[in-house]
Amino acid sequence: MTALLEVEDLRVAYGKIEAVKGISFSVEAGQVVTLIGTNGAGKTTTLRTLSGLLKPLAGTVRFEGETLTGTPAHKIVKLGLAHSPEGRHIFPRLTITENLQLGAFLRKDAAGIDKDIQRAYDLFPILGERRGQAAGTLSGGEQQMLAMGRALMSRPKLLMLDEPSMGLSPIMMQKIMHTIRELKSNGTTILLVEQNAQAALSLADCGHVMEIGKIVLSGTGQDLLHDESVRKAYLGED
Ligand SMILES: Nc1ncnc2c1ncn2[C@@H]1O[C@H](COP(=O)(O)OP(=O)(O)OP(=O)(O)O)[C@@H](O)[C@H]1O
Ligand SMILES: [Mg+2]
């Protein structure tokens, strides 16, 4: 069986700085795969390349067997790959409903879009309660929920989340992690980038540890959670 997403020897540079130095990994349909690693390891660069926002120097990305190299970002969304970016990037002056509608900008099925907006409200009731409010008035955690809800509006086959727990209180973080589990049990495939290694590895089928542009360790979520070097470097243990 071919994986949903296959990344082979991907290299990405900003000018002369090579931020991703030849990484390979794959994501099978139905899995949650996580990329963890310290600041500047190249996680965001990897996601931005997969969604077509950055051009790789070299390497191959295949989605459902189709090579994505050179495919523009909007076509990649259409193929079924959605990205909830680091730092959220919601539209603060637009309402919550309008932000969600923008996530469906490539769809034409009005009834289906309304149904999925309702689904986002079921997933995150606070968004439903505040639907007519400007998104900029939401708290950080609520904006994170909106960013996830918006990414889901394209009905993605693969949802990429870049640090969904960033800046959130422990309770908000638990809520977000719970939602990721819920999405997984509904069959959504997820590529999760997280600083919170404990939370990410606990729910991931498979994880990769990145350090300065390379994958230095891979395993199941449970294996990595119990790996001594991971515990020392990422889980704050001596
Ligand atoms: N637009 C840019 N121009 C130049 N260098 C960049 C740019 N964006 C990122 N970098 C560099 O590329 C490297 C990887 O950055 P990236 O944002 O992918 O890391 P990250 O793993 O997502 O880190 P974090 O956990 O802090 O979000 C870093 O050294 C960073 O300084
Ligand atoms: Mg990042």
Automatic annotation (TrEMBL):
User: Which keywords does this Swiss-Prot/TrEMBL entry list?
Assistant: Amino-acid transport, ATP-binding, Nucleotide-binding, Transport
* Gene Ontology MF: a single term: branched-chain amino acid transmembrane transporter activity
Ranges for domain ABC transporter come to 5-237
Q: Does the keyword Nucleotide-binding apply?
A: yes
UniProt KW Iron keyword? no
Do you know which InterPro entries this protein is assigned to?
Answer: AAA+_ATPase, ABC_branched_ATPase_LivF/BraG, ABC_transporter-like_ATP-bd, ABC_transporter-like_CS, BCAA_Transport_ATP-bd_LivF, P-loop_NTPase
Q: Which GO terms describe its biological process?
A: L-amino acid transport
Q: Which CDD domains match?
A: ABC_TM1139_LivF_branched (cd03224)
Q: What domain of life does the native source organism fall in?
A: Bacteria
Cross-referenced Gene3D superfamilies: P-loop containing nucleotide triphosphate hydrolases
Family per UniProt? Answer: Belongs to the ABC transporter superfamily.
Recorded protein name is Branched-chain amino acid transport system ATP-binding protein
Organism encoding this protein: Streptomyces zagrosensis
